[in-house]
Fold this protein.
Amino acid sequence: DTTPGVYWELDGAGNLVLSAINGREGTLRSFGTDAQTSMPPWASCNTNIRTFRVAANTTIKLQNEGTYSNMFSECRYLTSADFTGMDMSGHPTSFYHMFYNCLALQNVNLSNFDTYLCQNLEGMFQGCYMLENVKFPADSFNTIRVTDMSGMFEGCYKLATIDLSSFNNPGVNNQTNAELPITFTAQAMFKDCKSL
């Protein structure tokens, strides 16, 4: 594999930065193959992370059909995540527990996310008590192949409004396309969202 690599740095102030080894672009490899147990390489430092960003003038691609579960799971002091410079065109398949229990997270911009092949969004923001705003892509947050959105916003106590108009999941109630998931669950998707 000749794909340029990626390295990560966490400074003393808690800023997690992804950079390309060649200084221009690189691919962040899949965290594993199992949607629920895959962990990012910085998982052991999760309680020290305060912010996340991609290095300036750098493009970080996600591996084709990779699993990026638990990306910031239990990053209890994470306040912001900036995905500018992240190339999602590789069609990741899982963002399971992506921001699980990020207790200090208030705003997330997912406007450049490509979820065309994504199947698992379970607990993506579960336990984000301070979350007030999530910005989804304006044209389409493609959920056509998603089978699990259970607990996606569970426990987001401060979330007062959310615009899901960009979600497109025509297969949920009408299974007419053989390519669409045959099962779908959104159990407790908004459980304990006391401000909604």
Notes: The mean pLDDT is 88. The first strand starts at residue 6 and ends at 10. The two ends are 47 Å apart (CA to CA).
